[in-house]
Every structure is written in C-alpha cells, then in structure tokens.
Specification:
mainly alpha
Length: 534
C-alpha cells in the first residue's frame, strides 16, 4: 500500500476514533439529560435539533467540503498561496452566513416552535441559535486543515464539543428544569451546547495560527478572491442542497410523525414520548457507528481530489475501492451487532430511569432492532458521496438522496398514520430512503473513479465475517445470559455485564473472522503495526 493510501486509512482512524468517542459521549449525555428533563423535555430537545441541523447544513455543510477539495487540489499542484486564498475567501463567506442564520433562527423561534406543535419551546430555539455562528466559523478552519490532510485538530475540536456538553449543558439543563420545568430544562441544555461550540471554535482558530504556511511557488499564478468565491459557491451549492435533504426530512418528521400519530388516535403526550424515544434513543444509538462513516467521507474528498488533480486514475480507483471496502467492514458488523443487542443496549442506557416504563423501553428496543439495518446503508451512502464529491460529481449524491427522502416522506405518510404500525413506520421509511440513494451512488462512484466493483471485497467477505460474529453474539446472549430475561435485571452492573461480555466476544470473533476471510488485511492496520510485521 502506498503512503497516500496509508494516509487515507490513518485519517479515517483519527477522525473515526474521535467520532466514536463523541458519539458515545453523546449517548451517555442523553441518559442523564433524559433523567433530568423527562420524556417530554427530551422530545422538545429532539424537536429543536432538526431545524437547527437544517440551518447548519445550509451554512456549513457544502463550503467546508469545497474548501477541503480546493485546498487539496492546489497543494497537490504546489500552489500553496492559492490554497491559503481559498481559506480566507471561504472564512469570509461562512462568517456572513453564520451571522445571518443566527439572526434568522432567533427571529423565527416562536414561529417554528408553533409550527412543530410546541409553542412553549421557543426558548430552546433561541438558546441554540448562537452556535450556528460558532460552527460556521469553525467549519472554515476544519475544511482548511482537512484539505492539508491534518485531521487531528478537527478530531480534538469534536471532542471539545462533546465534553463541553457534559460539563456545561447538563448543569444548565438541571438548573433550567428546577426553575421552569421541562421547557426550561431543554433550553438550558441547548444553551450549554452553544457555549461548547464556542470553545471548540476558539480551539480551531488557535490551532490554525500554529500552521507554518508553505511558500508559494515561483510560477504560481494568483487566483482572484472573486474567482475563488464563485468556484466555492458552485462546488458547495449541490453539496449543501444534498446535506440539507436529510435535516429537512428530519424537520418534517419532527412535526409529521407526531401529528400523524395523533391523527391515528394516539394521545398527544404519548405521541410526543414515542417520537422522543425514536429520535432521542434510537437515532442517537445509530449515530454512534455512523461517526466512522462521516470520518471516511471527510477523508475521501481530499484524497480523491488529489488524485484527480494529478490525473492519476489508478490511484483514484484504489482509493475508491479502499473506501468502499472499509465502509462494508464497518457497516455490516455494526448493523448486525446493534440489531441483535438492541433491547439490552436500550435497557442498559435507560433501564434505571424512572421517566420510562418497561413497555416504553421495549418499544425503543424494537425500533432499534430494525433501525440498526440502516447503518450499513448510511455508511455506503457516505463513502460513495465522498468519492463523488472528490471527483467533482457532487450533484449526483444530492439527486439520489433527494429521491430517497421523497420515498421516506411518502412511506411515513402511508405507514405512521396506521394505528397498528404508528412510529414503527419511521425506520421502514428510513431504510427505504438510504437504499434508494445507495444503489445509484454505487454505480456512479465506480463509473467516475474507474474502480471495478468487487462483490467479494465489498460485500461477501465483510458480510461473511459479520454473520459469524452475529452467530457468536446470539449464542452468548441467549445461552449464557438467558436472552431477554436479563432485561428484568435491576442495577446498572447487572445490565452492563451481559452487554459488555457479549460485545467483547462479538468483536473478537469478528476480527478473527475478518482476517480469516481477508475482509481486513495487514495493510489496513496502523502503520506502527505494519512496520513491526515487516
């Protein structure tokens, strides 16, 4: 494996490990948060996030990818001056966008809260609004660093965001709940989130000051700021539109799912709790392993862009194949493992909370059991999107994801309004959404990267290793710990042991099986282990 390929896997490792830690902290953060503000407070918290994420996608999803791609392009050509000009131009754009969206969310907070059916929750929107500015500015620095293949600052800033939530948001949530119930508790948690984003932004600014600028080459022709701005916008628009699709669908879900359940005869409070369980428990769990998918997509963009700049299609094809294979190596075991352990995971995290009944936890487990299957699909969608964005075909993932979301909304309307299905229709719709997006993405990724799709490398080997892992997990959970009988255990430790032991066995079996069937190879290991092997 070349040094460049190692840098791809190394970058995925850095961001992936940080992302996993962040997602795990996020899950653990939800547990005391749910205990503090209750099911209704968590439901309100989750209702706020889709609108926030939508505005965040509008402002800071496409431009950082454009920065990363353009910086990587110019650095590959040795034009370090133009790479810096890309960053400064993008920073100005993101600063303006951050200010505009922050003011917009502050101004429309009462209107949005009323539209999603919780008018008393407008303070939550106001408290999260400042973080739009902080994240926008921070995204410019992250894109610049990623374009230079410096992933560590981004990883550390992500950790700062999550640790800040625990250190600041939880105390604020507790104080808010004590003073104004679940509405103030949600607002306090979101205010703490804004403060954490501010600290992470300051860290990225400081880190960028320590980057020693490379001198511009003698024959480098400076590109004007206007030309760079135009190119940034042209690249980022389809990426931004594509990134807005899922938050937009989640925003629609936040109003749609609850209202559809109420229309099916479910009481409003019960509908809010069911939505809170699905979005707060289930989606949060699924987002843990998808951190690796996001890390992979982030690394693939500058990697593919670098190969395209050199017109080295052999390298591009190898990087695309590596990305798709890693996506399967990550996605298949995560989907199967989380599905098999869905109920014990939910009971481990929320079983000691007095705010949830046994039946509500069972509901969360059932939803997670099916929703976990979206992990492999989402992982592949992210990998293929990174390949296409790096290859300059950013319109394709936007179109395919839009088609998937249209199917998702249609299925939600059809299924959730049925009394015997209700909230269970949401994961079915999500599974369909990512399937519709993934299939054409795979085709075009192979077409434009020159990679000849290998069914064995991308599907059969990772799936075979995952199947052996699943058999081991099911055997240990059912015959050693008694299956669902362990759900009735009381106390954190008695719930932790079955999950921890079963997961450890599953991980060990998967690693052994993956090496045995060559789903994972020696070249996939960190560089220090490869050197020792040699």
């Amino acid at each position: 494996m070349t040094d460049r390929q190692r840098s791809l896997i190394g970058g995925i490792s850095v961001l992936g490990i940080a992302g996993l830690i962040c997602k795990l902290v996020g899950v653990l953060y939800r547990i005391p948060l749910a205990n503090m503000i209750g099911g209704q407070g968590l439901g309100l918290y989750q209702q706020v996030m889709p609108a926030y994420n939508l505005l965040l996608a509008v402002t800071s999803a496409g431009i950082p990818v454009a920065i990363s791609r353009m910086v990587s392009h110019y650095i590959t050509l040795g034009e370090h001056g133009n790479a810096r000009r890309v960053f400064h131009t993008a920073l100005k754009l993101l600063t303006v966008l951050g200010i505009v969206t922050t003011v917009l969310l502050l101004s429309l907070s009462k209107v949005i809260a009323k539209q999603v059916g919780t008018p008393e929750g407008y303070l939550s929107y106001m408290c999260i609004a400042p973080s739009l500015f902080f994240v926008c500015v921070m995204s410019a620095y992250r894109g610049y660093m990623q374009g230079m293949r410096r992933m560590m600052p981004t990883a550390i800033s992500q950790l700062i965001e999550q640790v800040g939530k625990v250190a600041v948001a939880l105390p604020f949530a507790s104080i808010g709940f004590a003073r104004g119930g679940w509405t103030m508790g949600s607002a306090g948690a979101l205010l703490g989130t804004s403060l954490a984003e501010c600290v992470a932004m300051l860290y990225m600014i400081i880190q960028c000051r320590f980057v020693k600028p490379q001198p511009a080459s003698l024959n480098e022709k400076a590109v004007s700021g206007r030309s760079l701005a135009k190119r940034i916008v042209m690249i980022s628009i389809p990426i931004t539109l594509g990134a807005c699709i899922v938050p937009l669908a989640s925003t629609i879900d936040s109003a749609m799912l609850k209202n559809l359940m109420i229309g099916a005869g479910i009481p409003a409070d019960d509908a809010t709790i069911r939505y809170g369980i699905y979005s707060g428990m289930v989606i949060t769990m699924i987002n843990v392993p998808t951190a690796l998918a996001m890390a992979m997509s982030t690394n693939l963009v500058p990697s593919i862009a670098s190969g395209m700049a050199r017109k080295d299609m052999v390298y591009v094809a190898k990087e695309a194949g590596t990305g798709l294979r890693i996506a399967s190596v990550i996605g298949f075991p995560c989907s199967i493992g989380m599905s098999l352990l869905s109920k014990p995971i939910i009971f481990l995290c929320y079983g000691d909370s007095p705010k949830y009944t046994f039946d509500q936890l069972i509901l969360g487990g059932n939803l997670l059991e099916f929703s976990a299957m979206t992990i492999i699909l989402f992982t592949m969608v992210q990998a293929t999107s990174g390949i296409l964005q790096g290859a300059g075909k950013q319109k394709i993932p936007m179109i395919t994801l839009a088609a998937g979301v249209v199917c998702k909304i249609a299925l939600n309307t059809l299924l959730v309004r049925q009394t015997d299905i209700n909230i269970h229709g949401a994961p079915i719709a999500s599974l369909t959404c990512y399937t519709v997006s993934m299939i054409p993405n795979l085709y075009y990724s192979c077409k434009y990267s020159g990679y000849h799709f290998s069914v064995g490398d991308v599907i059969l080997r990772p799936l075979g290793a995952s199947a052996l892992m699943g058999a081991a997990v099911w055997t240990v959970y059912m015959f050693v710990f008694g299956g669902e009988r362990c759900l009735h255990n009381s106390g954190m430790l008695s719930r932790l042991v079955p999950v921890a032991v079963t997961m450890i066995v599953g991980i060990m079996v998967y690693i052994a099986a993956a090496f045995l069937v060559r789903a994972i190879r020696i070249d996939d290991l960190p560089a220090r282990f490869r050197r020792k092997k040699a």
